[in-house]
Amino acid sequence: MKPILYIIIPCYNEEKVLPVTEPLFLKKLTGLIEKESIAPESRVVFVNDGSRDRTWELIKGYAEENSHILGLSLSRNRGHQNALLAGLMEMKDRCDITISIDCDGQDDINAMDEMLKEYEKGAEIVYGVRNNRDTDSFFKRSTAQGFYRLMKAMGVESIYNHADYRLVSARALDAFADFEEVNLFLRGLFPLVGFHSACVYYAREKRMAGESHYPIKKMVAFALDGITSLSVKPIDLIAKVGLTIVFFSFVGIIYALVSALLGHVVSGWTSMTCIICFLGGIQLLSLSIIGQYVGKIYLESKHRPRYIISERTEDQKKGEDRK
Ligand code: UDP
Ligand code: MG
Questions:
Q1: Is 126 inside a domain boundary?
Q2: Ligand 1 centre from 213 Cα, in Å?
Q3: Pairing label, strands 43-48, 69-74
Q4: CATH code where residue 64 lies
Q5: At a CB cut-off of 8 Å and minimum separation 6, what does 151 contact?
Q6: Which end of the chain offers a freer environment for a tag, N or C, measured as fewer CB atoms within 10 Å?
Q7: Which residue puts its alpha carbon closest to atom 14 of ligand 1?
Q8: Which residues sit opposite 167 in a β-bridge?
Q9: Do 148 and 258 fall within a single domain?
Q10: Whole domain around residue 247: which residue ranges?
Q11: Whose CA is nearest to atom 16 of ligand 1?
Q12: How confident is the model at residue 297 (pLDDT cuts 50, 70, 90)?
């Protein structure tokens, strides 16, 4: 039996790009159905992440026109990761496999064929990995690569150059559903789910229309979020830096005592100031890193819902299609 594929696409203020990419997604899906790679019950699911423009109206229109398209709308903007999670969790019981992809046409939809092949060969998770960054600006390219390196150094296992273009089987999603954290960094979490996985390489293009929602400030926040969500290495690092400084402080104290005993009385204002500033800085930095973790514990302890669905397109009532 051919697998039922649901393509999950988060959209936030995408009225400019959706009219361009929606026909492409639909064509891909129907093409795969015609080729008998996937079952006819397969669907494209657009998740509206609380857009303020006409995105949801567009999605509702597409769903009305074509039964292969479904729409979910979140009650407010929750960010890419939560929107994607909403789509995956809401749809996992109705399909055999999901593929998540951005709606801006940057990721090559033709890589889906190869992802499906890897699935047939037994992979439960297939990571889409971009093999070039030519279309990114030099700045985005180098910062992105810097972040991957930093994350790796900090002990976060993530696939180099993989974003959120990924095939995940319903079986892996069932296991993933038990990861209940609210601080989401999906690309670092899926490797923790395990199962047999594979990579498929593709060229990443420029956005077809509209603008990126990830300027540098958000990218830095996202990378830091990833590290503090998945690794406690920064806390280890603080401990090591602290120990080293304590060691040197001892050396300094002994030196100062010996100097005092030998009668070299120095005014020492400069060195004092330097030490106080340096230690003050280190302490503040360390506290802020620990604060990040405390903040996360605070958020996790509340167990707030990770997304709230406000609307669904028609054919979404439970149990209508298979399973
Ligand atoms: N997105 C979302 N919620 C947000 C921000 C972005 O659902 O709050 C979606 C967006 O519509 C797109 C995907 O996440 O489908 C990736 O965003 P974008 O293309 O702006 O990021 P970039 O590719 O520049 O990193
Ligand atoms: Mg994009």
A1: yes
A2: 5
A3: parallel
A4: 3.90.550.10
A5: 158, 188, 223, 226, 227
A6: N
A7: 80
A8: 99, 126
A9: no
A10: 233-302
A11: 102
A12: confident
Same domain, 185 and 257: no
One domain for residues 248 and 177: no
Q: How many CB atoms lie within 10 A of CB 30?
A: 15
pTM for this entry? 0.75
User: Is residue 227 one of the residues assigned to a domain?
Assistant: no
204-240 pLDDT, tens digit each: 888 788 888 877 788 788 888 888 887 777 877 877 7
Q: How many domains does the chain have?
A: 2
pLDDT tens for each residue of 239-284:
778 778 877 777 777 877 787 778 766 667 667 776 776 787 778 7
Question: Nearest residue CA, atom 17 of ligand 1?
Answer: 213
The ligand minimizing its distance to the Cα of 222 is 1
Domain co-membership, 98 together with 187: yes
Q: Is 54 among the domain residues?
A: yes
Do 126 and 239 lie in a common domain?
no
Query: 43-52, 159-168, 264-273, 292-301 — which one is most confidently predicted on average?
Result: 43-52
What does the block give as tokens for 143?
A: 């910062």
| Nearest ligand 1 atom, CA 10 | 7
* Contact yes or no for 101/109 (Cβ under 8 A): yes
- With H, G, I as helix, E, B as strand and everything else as coil, classify residue 5: strand
- Supply φ then ψ for residue 196, to 5 degrees: -75, 130
Residue 224: inside a domain:
no
Task: Report the pocket of ligand 1 as residue ranges, CB < 6 Å.
Answer: 10-12, 14, 49, 77, 79-80, 83, 102-104, 106, 212-214
From 81, 104, 107, 162, mutation site for ligand 1 pocket: most ligand atoms within 8 A of C-beta: 104
pLDDT at 180: 86
